[in-house]
Amino acid sequence: MKRGKRLFVAELLLLAVLFSMNKHTIRAFISIFIHEICHIIVANWKGSQFSKFQVHIYGTRVKLSNLDELLDKDKIKIYIAGPAINLFISGMFFCINFFVDSNIVSEFILINLGLFLFNMIPAYPLDGARILEIILSNKMFYKKVQSIMSQVSYAFGLCFIILFFLFILKVGEINLSLLISGILIWYITYSQQKTSTYILMGNIFMKRNKLIRNKYLDNRIISVYYKQGLVNLMSIIDKNRFNTFYVLNDDLKLLFIMHEDELIEALKVYGNISLEEYSKKRLGKSI
């Protein structure tokens, strides 16, 4: 399914979730709108621009440009800004509640506290997942991070679906928002897994802009075995640094040095051949 169709399906699911909120819809919409506005304000402050802002009857969606060019700490601040404002609003109305006894005040407390907790869940496509992804990316390979994040995301999606059935069995209540949230998390996680390689390749090209923007880029050198394929190297690339590979044979003899820009070009020209095969083609071209 193409990306546009996937987004359309996701939006339909979000619409169903929102309708299940009935009388809280308007107050929830206001809180979600403020959540997204806060993302935009912090993004602009850190140098990112929002290229698309859509408002629908079922919520809002913000698309930020050149986000991947920012430092990790700045990206975390952008992602955490939305949940943070919901927590602040919840706290503010909690204080107001001491002086004003109103159902509206109580609902804003619960809605914003719920939005804070929900968005901090480390499951796609929520802010908590993006924050955890950035933290883990500084400690391990990108493909390993994606594997861990997918497992965590699937687990939370399954929890929502199990809670849906528990509500029916124990309380006798049908809470569609739990079921649809679980399905949505599973669907978007699956889509994320399928496109992870393309996302990584895109991040490699974005590093050029990051270099120009920050005037420097950290390097990383790793030794690899010559029998493995080019695609295997993609799985161990650090997306935040410029990668250089020392290709070694069985005797730990250095065959050649390969930089990540050459890896991308080799994949485009030859496909997933082994480093041993590529070494011969490389040698043939240099003669």
UniProtKB/TrEMBL annotation:
Using the UniProt record, give the first listed, main subcellular location: membrane
Which cofactor names does the annotation list?
Answer: Zn(2+)
Asked whether the keyword Aminoacyl-tRNA synthetase is assigned, the reply is no
Domain (Peptidase M50): residue spans on this chain? 104-158
Q: Where is this protein localized, as stated in its record?
A: Membrane
Describe its membrane topology: Multi-pass membrane protein
- Give the record's GO CC terms: membrane
**GO terms of molecular function:** metal ion binding; metallopeptidase activity
Q: What transmembrane ranges does the database entry give?
A: 78-99, 105-126, 147-168, 174-190
Q: Name one Pfam family in it.
A: Peptidase_M50
GO process terms (BP): proteolysis
Q: Which UniProt keywords apply?
A: Hydrolase, Membrane, Metal-binding, Metalloprotease, Protease, Transmembrane, Transmembrane helix, Zinc
Family annotation (PANTHER family): MEMBRANE-ASSOCIATED ZINC METALLOPROTEASE M50B (PTHR39188), STAGE IV SPORULATION PROTEIN FB (PTHR39188:SF3)
UniProt lists the family membership as follows: Belongs to the peptidase M50B family.
Q: Tell me the protein's name.
A: Peptidase, M50 family
**Source species:** Clostridium celatum DSM 1785
